Amino acid sequence: MSQIIGLTGGIASGKSTVVEAIRQAGYRVIDADQVVHDLQAKGGKLYQALLAHFGEEILDDEGNLNRPKLSQLIFSSPENLKVSSDLQNQIIREELASRRDKLAQTEDVFFMDIPLLIELGYQDWFDAIWLVYVEKETQVQRLMSRNGYSYEEANQRIHAQMLLEEKRAYADVLIDNNGSLADLTGQVQIQLQQLQ
């Protein structure tokens, strides 16, 4: 039976770097953000569901999802936000489950990178949850330099998610990314060796 590890973190926590190190070590990783992107592509399941619910006004001239327009529509009312969340979460969950089950047939150990793993209640899918953790102040600084945000904007983005401090309670493994890149990759290597 496969060992399935859930990987999560927060904005600017360094999760992408950890995923890269895991892939370089030869492990497969299902990336929830990529799955969403695939589902939202023209003709995808999410694309169809959003189109059916919100109508053609959410499309651009080429018939692709107009993300700014869609975002504006979704956040314009609590009702639209709820409908969109319920619709998307169900389709995404089904697709992630399908990809998980398929990979479980061929891989002894694999990872699933799900940013909202805890918020959306995926905990029971995993044998272990790895959290990429960074101090809030470091997270703010990294987000400011990476995205050019002001201190207020960076803080706002961080507080829009569940704080990493709160996520610690759910983690089986804490990957501490307050140090250097070498520290981070070293920790990942140690954790991967313990899986073998």
Q: Helical residue percent?
A: 40-55%
User: How many β-strands, per DSSP?
Assistant: 5
Which word captures the global form? Answer: globular
The stretches of 5 or more residues where confidence is low (pLDDT under 50) are none
SS summary, helix count: 9
Could you state the oligomeric state of the chains shown?
A: single chain
Task: Give the DSSP E fraction (strand runs of 2 or more residues).
Answer: 5-15%
Mean pLDDT: 93
What integer value in Å does the Rg equal? 18 Å
Structural class: alpha/beta
Q: Major sheet, described briefly? A: 5 strands, parallel
SSE ordering: EHEHHHHEEHHHEH
Give a short summary of the structure.
The protein is α/β, with parallel strands linked by helices and 196 residues long. It is built from nine helices and five strands. Strands 2-3-1-4-5 form a five-stranded parallel β-sheet, with helices on both faces.
Mind explaining what this structure looks like?
This protein is α/β, with parallel strands linked by helices. About 55% of the residues lie in helices and about 15% in strands. The protein has 9 helices and 5 strands. The protein has helices at about 15-25, 30-40, 45-55, 65-75, 80-105, 135-145, 150-160, 165, 180-195; strands spanning about 5-10, 30, 110-115, 130-135, 175. The chain has a 5-stranded parallel sheet, with helices on both faces. The protein is globular, with a radius of gyration of 18 Å.
